[in-house]
Input
Amino acid sequence: MVGPPIIDIAPLSRGDESEVAVQIHEACLRTGFFVVVGHGLDSTMRDVFAAAQAFFALPQDLKERTPRIERYGFVPDQDHAIDRERMTHATEYLDLGLHDEVPMPDLPGFEAAVRRYQSEALVVGANLLAVMAVQLGADRQFFARQMDDPQCRLRFLHYLPIPPAADGTLAVPTSPHTDYGALTLLAVDGVPGLEVQPIGGEWTPVEAPAGALVVNIGDMLARWTNDLYRSTPHRVVASPNQHRISVPYFVNPAASTMVTCIPSCATADRPMRYEPILAGDYLAARIDGTIEPYLDPADAPDRYA
Output
């Protein structure tokens, strides 16, 4: 099965978006995943990866000084956690918001690199959302009007190498899931591992060169579009001998945004599937919940029909 397409979005900055818009729309309809190059974030991305690498290279006790507060901060891997109530399996990560949710690590240039990347990547996300709005039959500023105080989260994510099982099977430290929010922009370092499972299909590697952005639709945007746009399960397969760093940026609207079906996405043959809900309430319920919806079509609503 062919993986998500690679789309050069450089024409968007020149106002020439017709062909690119169609490619993005088709990818969102089919799998909800595509890989972006020509995004203009090259130097900013290099700096933010350098910041991530510098943070993960710190001694464990210094990393643990960035506390976990209200869904932000550092979460260690299981083998190195000092606070055993805050750990994952063979990954460690740091969540940072747009404001001062947690103290920034005391590293030269760290905060400047983070803030610059957050700002510039949000522009890329806004441009993509504008294209999507037009393709969905809404006006170009539909999503922009919901982003006056966005709920965005930048994550530095470090996957540690994991030896394969005796039968050669590779570990899956990030189990299958769909993302919660509107749009995810995932900056990658070129180390493979991300896989996507289109509805009814097999697990398929996402081919993305270092410096690319993997873009995927989250459950909130799927809900907004009455499931025209796909929020597709994905996972990460561990490398047996390489460290992998990725930087997902979760782009979400203001907490006060009422997420309700875009009128053009509901028809007599495809009636509105979801009740309106506040974006802040939706994200809080999903982040704090323990159930990942939509992974098993047998248990899902009729979005897979």
